[in-house]
Each structure stands twice: as C-alpha cells, then as structure tokens.
Amino acid sequence: MTIPVVDYHCDVLSKMVKDKSISFVDDPMLDVTYKRLLEGGVALQTFAIFLSEERGIPRFEHILDQIDVFTSRVVPVQEGVRWMKWREDAASLEHAVKAAEQHPPQSHALQPWGLLSVEGADGFEGNLFYVKVCYDLGVRFLGITWNHANWAADGVMEKRKGGFTEKGKQLIELCNETGLLLDVSHLSEAGFWELAERSKRPFIASHSNAKAVCPHPRNLNDEQIRAIAAMDGRIGITFVPYFVKEGPGPVVPADVLPHIERMCEQGAGNMLMFGSDFDGIETWIQDLEHPGRYPAFIDLLLTRYPEDLVKGWMSGNALSFLSRHLPAKPV
C-alpha cells in the first residue's frame, strides 16, 4: 500500500554547510537524501536550520548560510524539491497525497516538498527584525530554544528551568502576527506553559516522545501532550533511540509503538506525526536508519492500527495543520 510520508525534522543542512562536497542526491554521509525521500515515499521533509556549537557564537549569517544551502543545493536537485511556504502549497500537497493513496502511482513517487524551520532562536542575536527577515525568506517554523538558554527563553536542559525573557515574549507576539509557527521541542516546561498561555496560535512539538514511556527530559509529560491536543497542535514522534527506550541493547521499530499508544491515550491520536531527527543523531533505531525505511515501518503500523489512523500519522495530520495554519499566499 502506498501511504505518503511527512517527516517534520532532519538536520541535513547543518551537515551540508560544513562540507560543500556533500551532494543531496545520494551522498552516503547523509541519512536524508533525495533518492531516499523517493524510496521512502516522503512527500514533505522539514529541514531544520540548526547552529552547531562547533561554529562558535551563533550569528544571523549562520542562519543565512543554511538557507543558501537549501536554496542552492537541495531545492534544485534532480527533478526539484518544491519549497512549501503557503497554506495553498499545503492544500495542494494534501490533495496530491489523497489521490496517491487512492490511486497509487505506478512509476514514481510524489515529487517531494521541503519546509524550512529554525531550531533555536540563538542566531537571531536578539534582533526581532532578523526574525521577520527569515519569515520573508521562507522560514515557516521556529523552535524557540535548543537544549540551553538563549536570549528568548530557557531550554529543557537549563538548570534554572525558567520561561521566557521579556524579549522572548515580544518574539511570541511577532510570530503570532506574521504567521511564523512555533515549535516547543527543546523548550523548558515553564516555557511550554507560558507559551500555551500567551500564544494565539497552536504550536507543535516537532520531535518529542512520551515521557511516561521513556523519561528523557526532552520528552513530553502527559499534561503537555493533553495541552497540545486541546489546542489542535501537533506532536512529531521521533526516532532518537534514547528518547524511545531506556537501557542497553538495540532499539527496534516496535519500541516506538508504546509512545504512539500513550499519546493516543492522552487524546492526541489525531495530532500525531513523525519527526525523525535523521542527520541529527549518531545512533539509529535498527531498521529505521533513514527515510528509505519508512515503507517497512508503515507495514508494521498497519499490523496494529486501522489504516485511517496510520494515514493520519504518516501525513494527514501534519498536512491538515499546515493547510490551516501556514500563512495565505499574498495576492
């Protein structure tokens, strides 16, 4: 069965910006490549702009470097990665996905789309004008922090466990006004609840699992899951092995299922999607090492869950969110 996939998080760009010789077509240094997107039936891949600590103090130019990598080395590859910016783009893909599910194409997969996000506001240097520039350049999601504190808020690993700064509160307002959508993966719990109170728009957790199943700090507790479900946000189940399962030994695809079930128990069954974190990890779930493994994973899901639910998790839930909450294309 053909079920197209939306993957809400990968770190390809931070690898490619460090090494100009890497080709997005099929380079073995990457988990996510153009050929593997086709192989796995990935209709939409979100590309995160992550500023590695290896580059020193995060600067706005570092964000621009990765936007340039996306536009010059990812989008033009092969038949082209289409750049999703507007709700009309999402609605178009949503229609194509439904058609593909009903009448599977015999010769080729859907042409993949790409969506840009920024993981951590550090590189904006506290300058809200830079945030607006990134929106104008086509970035559509912002993960407010990485693990530590920045000028806007505390990350989940920051020991003081604070929320938003005054400038961070202005950032929330700006994002709500422009249509730049917010992502709470990596945000502190205090920041999560402050954002839930302040934001006029629903938000997502692009790559986080259930803390009740695996108690890693980066996972969401039941109250957070229920809050995202109540606002009709979205949660991307991730394939980071140590977010999936504690202890020694290999992590296998079946180990992801308890996270899905826990979130369904909390009322988030229709809000689930996947955010693999491919290219942001150095260990992998066995048989889930890259996008080409998605078809086998879908087969596993179909042995346990109804087809309509699986279709929602793989693409439908993500696309319905985007078709409602991305900004409308200017006339």
Automatic annotation (TrEMBL):
Query: Which Gene3D superfamilies does the entry link to?
Result: Metal-dependent hydrolases
Q: Which domain of life is it from?
A: Bacteria
A single GO BP annotation from the record?
A: proteolysis
Pfam families to which the protein is assigned, alphabetical: Peptidase_M19
Q: Which GO terms describe its molecular function?
A: metallodipeptidase activity
Q: Please give the name of this protein.
A: Membrane dipeptidase
